[in-house]
Q: What sequence folds into this?
């Protein structure tokens, strides 16, 4: 395994930063950034907006409002998929991705379905009630759906309620709708009818050639956007088996010959965009000045890897003593500290904790990133 300070480790970081569009060439919009990454973990919605916006071209200056509008329009959807947890997925990809994931998601949830009494009869009843509640563009909040299920004599609290909603998402009944503001100003997710937000969906689990083609598409998109990465990295990220990922790689090379390449180092085989393979053996191009990135702890630069996450240079995600997530400070792609935000009197205060004293150039870069985060939020920012 490469030492943290080795030239190869630095090259891996540089390639991952570039392929994930944390470096140029950047995306033209949040939706385009999502298309590149295929799926983005988003259980921390306020921070997940930043994950997409910070990958956009500097002149585009994507804001929190831009991401929220894309979610409202349905270009970006938020639902349970892959492992499962909340993810952003582009509407053009959710149909086939759910077709690839649904069986494994239901299988993984089987124990909780049993524990919460969600058998086939209850799932069918609640699915019908939920579908009728949101049809015709009548997007509903979680609280509104809870009241509707309760009135129908179905569970509307705790885990039994939560797993009814998740079952409906995985079953292509519900998907995210247009967010609404609460009386206190917080943004609240709503649910919409899957078939009204997604067009051209196959309507069920993929089988045979369709499934193989979807595996190939997933492998192509994952390794092109996150490489260098291993089969095990992709399997952990996607929730698929390593056998399926290997099949996907074979199909990807048939679908798009010459797009993906491979390289062996640190005792592992890595897959990446073919155009980047030479960069692993070529000279490392150091930036004249350090670059600081504030990323969320569930950013794909972290969560896109499992077996090879050590190239990050530290352990993440990390929970603080109060069990709330601390997000990640990167210096030239290496974990260098933690951060989170808070709001007081219309000002965003950033609590930033570096793991060592910063150099003057690093402090300048950090200040610039704090200002960029403020522009994204549309609020003045300061260090707490």
A:
């Amino acid at each position: 395994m490469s030492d943290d300070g080795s030239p190869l480790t630095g090259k891996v970081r540089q390639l991952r930063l570039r392929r994930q569009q944390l470096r140029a060439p950047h995306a033209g919009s949040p939706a385009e950034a999502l298309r590149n990454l295929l799926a983005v973990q988003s259980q921390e919605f306020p921070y997940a907006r930043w994950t997409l916006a910070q990958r956009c071209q500097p002149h585009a200056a994507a804001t929190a409002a831009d991401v929220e509008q894309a979610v409202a329009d349905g270009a970006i959807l938020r639902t349970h998929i892959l492992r499962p947890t909340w993810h952003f997925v582009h509407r053009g990809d959710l149909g086939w991705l759910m077709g690839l994931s649904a069986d494994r998601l239901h299988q993984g949830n089987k124990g909780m379905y049993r524990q919460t009494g969600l058998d086939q009869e209850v799932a069918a009843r609640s699915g019908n009630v939920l579908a009728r509640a949101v049809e015709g563009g009548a997007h509903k909040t979680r609280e509104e759906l809870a009241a509707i299920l309760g009135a129908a004599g179905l569970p509307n609290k705790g885990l039994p309620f939560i797993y009814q909603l998740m079952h409906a998402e995985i079953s292509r009944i519900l998907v995210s709708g247009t967010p609404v503001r609460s009386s206190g100003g917080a943004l609240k997710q709503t649910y919409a009818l899957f078939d009204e937000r997604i067009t051209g969906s196959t309507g069920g689990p993929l089988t045979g050639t369709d499934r193989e083609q979807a595996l190939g598409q997933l492998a192509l998109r994952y390794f092109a956007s996150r490489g260098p990465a291993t089969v095990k990295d992709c399997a952990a990220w996607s929730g698929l088996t390593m056998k399926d990922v290997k099949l996907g790689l074979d199909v990807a090379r048939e679908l798009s010959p010459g797009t993906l390449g491979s390289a062996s180092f640190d005792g592992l085989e890595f897959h990446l965009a073919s155009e980047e393979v030479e960069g692993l053996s070529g000279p490392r191009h150091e930036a004249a000045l350090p670059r600081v990135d504030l990323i969320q702890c569930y950013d794909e630069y972290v969560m896109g890897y499992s077996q090879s996450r050590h190239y990050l240079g530290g352990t993440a995600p990390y929970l603080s003593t109060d069990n709330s997530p601390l997000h990640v400070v990167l210096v030239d792609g290496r974990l260098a500290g933690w951060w989170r935000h808070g709001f007081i009197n219309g000002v965003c205060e950033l609590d930033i904790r570096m793991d060592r004293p910063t150099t003057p150039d690093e402090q300048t870069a950090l200040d610039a990133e704090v200002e960029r985060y403020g522009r994204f939020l549309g609020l003045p920012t300061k260090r707490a």
The first helix runs from residue 7 to 19. The two ends are 38 Å apart (CA to CA).
